[in-house]
Amino acid sequence: MDERIKAVAAAGALLSYRPAIQEVHDTVELYNTDSSELVTASARIHYSLYIPSILKIADLPDILSLISPRRILAVNPLKPDNFAEIRKKIPGVTMREDLASAEVDHEVAQWFTAS
């Protein structure tokens, strides 16, 4: 990893592919061609956020753990049913939840400038 990168922030972050992909089978509409979204029981995930067969290798908590010890911020993350379980797998990630869209930019800027 590039040592110049000291911190990472994402708004509307997907914290795990597993619940979203596993719940696809419970839906009628699997892919919305108008919006380019993978449609699941709990979320609509833009196709650009999905990596085919990723769960055979790793899930996002595994990838986030590779970023450590760099700082990670997730603002208004998508919350699947097993959010509490996923949260335990990524203890180094700072969460800012339920922020209004007007507050997100300010919150991320403050977080980046904090020591």
Question: How would you explain this protein's 3D organization?
Answer:
The structure is a single chain. It is built from 4 helices and 6 strands, in the order E-H-E-E-E-H-E-H-E-H. Helix content is 29%, strand content 19%. Helix 3 links the parallel strand 5 (71-75) and strand 6. It has a 3-stranded parallel sheet with strand order 1-5-6, with helices on one face. Strands 2-3-4 form a 3-stranded antiparallel sheet, with no helix packed on it. The chain has one domain (7-113). With 115 residues, the protein is an alpha/beta fold. It has helices at 18-22, 60-67, 83-89, 101-113, and strands at 7-11, 31-32, 37-39, 44-46, 71-75, 93-96.
